[in-house]
């Protein structure tokens, strides 16, 4: 999904910024090397982080800054201003941070530091050997990623019959359905992302959960290819839609159905 544009009319931070102005006013939106940067005072110390939210590029210059965190005004992702670390969904990755120095009353930025989306920052979460997450939508996928961010090294498996997940379903009924957003905006993660993070994907529907026995029962395996490669399967389960003269049109609740609605005949659009 498209994010906020870089505002290059804002102060060029490579020329430095008056510390007194930072102390006196709200966080400053500036730029460095063509990238938007948010300059903020945290406990009297200046901090510099990327000014575009790592979810959909929301404008962090309009964000709430509280308790060492920045909270995106669009969907409330939360990041730690000291390190850029993503603290709460729907932040997809940490924010980049810049080294900051104050000399002769001027704030200047040093090297930029970026962290891998799932970097665990040295933590090592304790827990069971294996976690199975049912549903790999935005929430399920975020849960799996958070386990890796917290340093969990056991097996993580996402089970979902939809081969296109993870994506944010709200997009399906808005710009994408209207044909004003390209399909490349839909996936939350690029192909192979989960595999690289050691998160297994199983494209199946769970039919029974036994929490006592810690068992997940799935429909008989039909859709997972050899070597962990994903193959497409038809979605199953309850389906809501509209009966028309041309048959049944499922409502756009998945990428597959939304894609079909984008190509619907003109008479159905009325
Ligand atoms: C078209 C549309 C528009 C929406 N617009 C908005 C909006 O504007 N604002 C808003 O706040 N919310 C909206 N919603 C609600 C939206 O679904 C949620 O906000 C959000 O996407 C929920 O994310 P989730 O990961 O919790 O659930 P989902 O994205 O629904 O993910 C749940 C996943 O679980 C999987 N699953 C279900 N049953 C099983 C099973 N038995 N076994 C294995 N996997 C299973 C599903 O395939 C699915 O991928 C919209 C929903 C739709 C469908
Ligand atoms: S764009 Fe920031 S939370 Fe969605």
Write the layout of secondary structure elements.
Elements: E1 17-18, H1 19-24, E2 28-32, E3 35-42, E4 45-50, E5 64-66, E6 69-71, E7 78-80, E8 86-88, E9 97-103, E10 106-113, E11 130-134, H2 138-149, E12 155-159, H3 175-178, H4 193-196, E13 199-202, E14 206-210, E15 215-218, E16 241-244, E17 247-250, H5 255-262, H6 266-269
Parallel strand pairs: 11-12, 12-13
Antiparallel strand pairs: 1-10, 2-3, 3-4, 4-9, 5-6, 6-7, 7-8, 9-10, 14-15, 16-17
In short:
The protein has 270 residues and is an alpha+beta fold.
General description of the model:
Strand 9 and strand 10 form a beta hairpin. The chain has a six-stranded antiparallel sheet. It has helices at residues 19-24, 138-149, 175-178, 193-196, 255-262, 266-269, and strands spanning 17-18, 28-32, 35-42, 45-50, 64-66, 69-71, 78-80, 86-88, 97-103, 106-113, 130-134, 155-159, 199-202, 206-210, 215-218, 241-244, 247-250. The longest helix has 12 residues, at 138-149. By secondary structure, the protein is α+β, with helices and mostly antiparallel strands. The protein folds into two domains: 13-113, Rieske [2Fe-2S] iron-sulphur domain (Rieske Iron-sulfur Protein, 3-layer Sandwich); 130-238, 3-Layer(bba) Sandwich (FAD/NAD(P)-binding domain). Flavin-adenine dinucleotide binds next to helix 2.
């Amino acid at each position: 999904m498209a994010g906020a544009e870089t505002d290059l009319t804002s102060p060029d931070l490579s020329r430095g910024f008056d510390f007194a102005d930072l102390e006196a006013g709200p966080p400053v939106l500036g730029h460095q090397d063509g990238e938007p940067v948010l300059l903020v005072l945290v406990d009297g110390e200046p901090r510099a982080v990327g000014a575009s939210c790592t979810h959909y590029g929301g404008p962090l210059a309009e964000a709430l800054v509280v308790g060492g965190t920045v909270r995106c005004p669009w969907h409330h992702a939360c990041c730690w201003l000291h390190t850029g670390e993503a603290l709460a969904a729907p932040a997809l990755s940490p924010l980049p941070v810049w080294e900051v120095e104050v000399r002769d009353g001027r704030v200047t930025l040093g090297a930029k530091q970026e962290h891998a989306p799932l970097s665990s920052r040295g933590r090592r979460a304790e827990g069971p050997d294996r976690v199975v997450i049912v549903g790999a939508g935005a929430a399920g996928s975020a849960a799996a990623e958070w386990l890796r961010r917290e340093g969990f090294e056991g097996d993580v498996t996402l089970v979902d019959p939809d081969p296109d997940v993870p994506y944010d379903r709200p997009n399906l009924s808005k710009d994408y359905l209207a044909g004003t957003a390209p399909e490349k905006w839909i996936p939350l993660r690029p192909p192979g992302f989960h595999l690289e993070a050691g998160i297994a994907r199983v494209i199946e529907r769970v039919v029974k959960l036994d929490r006592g026995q810690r068992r997940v029962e799935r429909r008989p395996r039909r859709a997972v290819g050899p070597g962990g490669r994903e193959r497409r399967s038809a979605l199953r389960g309850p389906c809501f839609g509209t009966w028309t003269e041309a048959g049944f049109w499922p409502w756009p609740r998945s990428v597959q159905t939304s894609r079909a609605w984008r190509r619907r005949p003109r008479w159905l659009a009325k």
